[in-house]
Amino acid sequence: MASMLEYIKIILQKVSFDHRLFEKELRKAIRMLMPEEIKKLKLWCYERFSSNHQPILDRVFLLRASVS
Fold first, then answer.
1. Does residue 30 or residue 68 have the better pLDDT?
2. pLDDT above 80 for 60
3. What is the pLDDT of residue 1?
4. Is the torsion defined by CA of 30, 34, 35, 36 positive or negative?
5. Angstrom distance (rounded) from CA 45 to CA 53
6. Nearest to 28 by CA among 52, 8, 2
7. In the chain, where does DSSP find H-type helix?
8. Residue 2, Ramachandran bin (φ over 0: left; ψ between -120 and 50: alpha; else beta)
9. For residues 17 and 53, is the Cβ–Cβ distance under 8 A?
């Protein structure tokens, strides 16, 4: 059985064509994951999507860091 983190990665890959949907799913993912999983997701997202979604990644992960 796949972990929640692996499931979220699949979802993000599938919605990466649409900026709004990608951001929505990323925000939802962060609400569902544990802090250690969020760190892994952040690294994976920046490796995979920074060329197309850098502003979204910065906004979502920086906002999360300022709230924590």
1. 30
2. yes
3. 57
4. negative
5. 9
6. 8
7. 4-15, 19-32, 35-67
8. beta
9. no
The SS3 assignment for 2 reads: coil
Rg, C-alpha atoms of the chain: 11
Residue corresponding to tokens 């990323």: 26
Q: State the pTM of this model.
A: 0.88
Q: What span, in angstroms and rounded, lies between the C-alpha atoms of 65 and 59?
A: 10
For residue 66, the model assigns a pLDDT of 57
Q: Is 25 exposed, middle or buried (0-12, 13-18, 19+ CB in 10 A)?
A: middle
User: What are the φ and ψ backbone dihedral angles of 23, each rounded to 5 degrees?
Assistant: -65, -40
| Contact by Cβ (8 Å): 48, 26 | no
